[in-house]
Specification:
The protein is an alpha+beta fold and 257 residues long. It contains 7 helices and 10 strands. Helix 1 (52-63) packs antiparallel against helix 2 (73-96).
């Protein structure tokens, strides 16, 4: 457990990029970049269903209504959860009046002072790069992940399993929404990566780590490098990336950010 107590304020810089990929005509991903609030979100409209872009955009448009920095991280979480629960009900009601499901995954980072919350539903992911190590902070809500937990499938086998794209939780597909979350301590020079599955199906953890380990590069440049690497391969799915860097507010402004 990290027991370091930080006494100086933190600030955040970030960059984001999204691409339809090399196969799909429509980009059903969406993202939100609000470093002033300490809020970053990636939403991946469910590609197997129609109107996935409507679902992902509904999440982003709702969370954009959060305008004020909260006094406490718990209040911040309550606000975000309230918005996501409402979007879930709106999309589910829409589903009842149509012949198909309308849904989206979501992964969000909520930062306040020296702590943050990672919040997610589905298989969009959050990673943290710290001191040379890349760590996946989220656990996919997917059929293959359940098989891995039961010892019926190895992580390597899961990569090519025929049900690897089937998720078990998302915004809008059921009347009740259950979001997973984790509370983490922030440290200066931490790097965070939020992404849809279009990235990690093309780019390895080692490659992600190598690109995140570039203190001289801006978050936007790193995001562009990651997406260009994914696009150099099959890129069958939409790809969305947010890169976030944690700074000390006492440091001089980084001209690269």
């Amino acid at each position: 457990m990290d027991t370091t107590i930080l006494t100086y304020p933190l600030k955040y810089s970030s960059g984001a990029i999204s691409h339809a990929g090399k196969v799909r005509q429509v980009n059903q991903d969406a993202y939100l970049l609000c470093p002033d609030l300490g809020l970053w979100v990636v939403a991946d409209g469910m590609g197997g269903y129609e109107d996935g872009d409507i679902a992902s955009q509904a999440i982003i448009k709702s969370l954009q209504n959060i305008q004020q920095v909260p006094d406490k991280l718990s209040d911040f979480l309550t606000q975000v959860e309230k918005h996501l629960l409402q979007v879930n009900m709106d999309l589910y009601d829409r589903t009842l009046n149509h012949s198909h499901l309308i849904g989206s995954t979501v992964v969000a980072l909520l930062a306040h002072q020296h702590h943050a919350i990672v919040l997610w539903a589905g298989d969009s992911r959050a990673y943290r790069y710290r001191a040379g190590q890349l760590e996946q902070l989220t656990q996919d809500h997917s059929q293959v992940e359940e098989l891995i937990e039961k010892g019926l499938l190895s992580p390597k086998e899961a990569e090519t399993h025929p049900t690897s794209h089937i998720i078990t939780r998302a915004i809008g597909v059921k009347p009740d929404l259950f979001l997973d979350l984790d509370i983490i301590t922030l440290s200066v020079n931490d790097m965070f990566l939020l992404c849809s599955d279009g990235l990690y199906r093309e780019v390895t953890d080692l490659e992600m780590a190598e690109l995140l380990a570039q203190p001289e590069q801006s978050c936007q440049t790193i995001a562009e490098q990651l997406i260009n690497l994914a696009l150099s391969r099959q890129a069958k799915d939409n790809i969305t990336i947010i890169v976030i860097r944690i700074h000390s507010a006492l440091q001089e402004n980084n001209p690269n950010e």
